[in-house]
Amino acid sequence: MSKIFTNTVLIVIFLCCGLTQAIGGTSLNPIESLKVKSKHFKEPIEYNVTLPQSYFEKKHQEKKYFILFDLHPRSQPYLSGIHDWLSHNGEWPWFETIVITPTRYNPEFAELFQLMVKEPDNQTMLDYFEQDLFPSIAQKYRTNGFKIYSGFMSNGAIGLFSLLNRPALFNAYIITSPTLAENFIDINSDVEAKLSNLSKVDNKLRFLYLSTGRHQYEQASLPSFDLFEQALKKFAPPTLDWQVNINNESNYMSRPVVSVINAIEALFDDIHTDLMPDSQTSKKGVEAIIEYYKVLSENKYGFAVSAEGSLKMLAESYIVNNPQKALTIYRKTIELYPESAYAISALATAFAKSGDLKQAISYQIQAVEKSKAMIEWHQNKLKKILQGFQQQLKKQNKQRG
User: Fold this and answer.
1) Bridge partner list, 66
2) Which CATH code, of 3.40.190.10, 1.25.40.10, 3.40.50.10490, 1.10.287.70, is assigned to 280-400?
3) What span, in angstroms and rounded, lies between the C-alpha atoms of 387 and 44?
4) Which residues of the chain have pLDDT under 50?
5) Which residues contact 63 (CB under 8 A, 6 or more apart)?
6) CB-neighbour burial class of residue 344 (10 A; exposed 0-12, middle 13-18, buried 19+)
7) Cα distance between residue 150 and residue 145, in whole Å
8) 3-state helix/strand/coil string of the chain
9) Is residue 209 within 8 Å of residue 245, measured between CB atoms?
10) Judging by DSSP bridges, how do beta strands 206-212 and 31-36 pair with one another?
């Protein structure tokens, strides 16, 4: 091994170790304990509440967060780790989320679970979630109301049971290798009617990511899994966005980790990915795009989801063949998002492409001014665009003599 390579490795190890010591896992994912009392249990049940690093920062004091709930105590380390990695880069692809997991196995809760398995009409466990657990979380922590359920094997079956029998309890479900053999908890009983009724509960959009494989521990549930998938194909309403993934490549124990990553990317894709100009929605025009994001905002997430990116993409598609229409869409975007430096910059760029550099400079100056509330990187980027327009105009004037 060469001396240069050895030194490089030592430097990398040193930097990584130094970074670990400087940041530390607990500061990245601070964990608090929450004890929840209920009339259904003699003793309070204790939960680990893993908070995003930003939770205690002053600039985020008013921010509210998603919840991800998993019933398995051992899920906490991998969920919090994946979440921290997928959210630290500007909350992409995972928005900052509070992760809730039990601290340990609880015999009283296990008895309640077994009772529901024997008597599926007894939904005391769901009552506990709805009346005790989540109100306690909402009372102590800044949550935005959007709840994600994550479950593996029998815990996954509980998630499906909740979707069918108490759909308003969660907004999204990540279900991996659910135990469905022998019609576990009557999940496949009346599944057609229960799926059909989902849209009658309320106008909310819900999300289901359902995965399994063909490991020996999953084999017994595969026929019932297939029946559930067929029911989804025939009876799931448009308000349920569902995906089924049969994963035969990952190890059985890896499946929950892989499912969480894939599901989170799919769940938040409609926020992170702009509509293409040739999408069915964008083909219908500006108002259709605005309505699409209004539905996402009001019926899925419960907070404003911006249509800015999709509107700008539509405008860009017209810039060559119909520049006036493009400018109209850009102006509409600014009207909707007057504080967006990038919306204004997009209009400036459109003017520059049309040859009107004076207008481009005028709008880009406004964009730079709006960017003062943003981090320095964005300020510098918008300033650089302005300088480019100014140089183009200077060159243009020079050529004209």
Assistant:
1) 97
2) 1.25.40.10
3) 62
4) 1-22
5) 54, 55, 96, 142
6) buried
7) 16
8) CCHHHHHHHHHHHHHHHHHHHHHCHHHHCCEEEEEECCCCCCCCEEEEEECCHHHHCHHHCCCCEEEEEECCCCHHHHHHHHHHHHHCCCCCCCCCEEEEEECCCCHHHHHHHHHHHHCCCCCHHHHHHHHHHHHHHHHHCCEEEEEEEEEECHHHHHHHHHHHHCHHHCCEEEEECCCCHHHHHHCCCCHHHHHHCHHHHCCCCEEEEEEECCCHHHHCCHHHHHHHHHHHHHHCCCCEEEEEEECCCCCHHHHHHHHHHHHHHHHCHHHHCCCCCCCHHHHCCHHHHHHHHHHHHHHHHCCCCCCHHHHHHHHHHHCCCCHHHHHHHHHHHHHHCCCCHHHHHHHHHHHHHCCCHHHHHHHHHHHHHHHHHCCHHHHHHHHHHHHHHHHHHHHHHHHHC
9) yes
10) unpaired
pTM above 0.85, yes or no: yes
CB-CB neighbours of 331 under 10 Å = 14
Q: What's the token pair of residue 46?
A: 């204790």
Structure tokens at 115: 């009772």
Report whether the peptide linkage leading into residue 93 is cis, meaning its omega lies within 30 degrees of zero.
yes
Predicted local distance difference test score (pLDDT) of residue 13: 33
Phi, psi dihedral angles at 70 (to 5 degrees): -135, 135
Its sign, for the CA torsion 320, 321, 326, 327, is positive
pLDDT value of residue 91: 95
What does the block give as tokens for 231? 């029911």
pLDDT per position as a tens digit, 106-155: 999 999 999 999 999 999 999 999 999 999 999 999 999 999 999 999 99
CA angle in degrees (0–180, nearest 5) for 82-32-162: 65
**Domain ranges for the chain:** 27-272, 280-400
Q: 165 is written with which tokens?
A: 């029998």
d(CA 98, CA 142): 9
Question: Is 27-272 a CATH 3.40.50.1820 domain?
Answer: yes
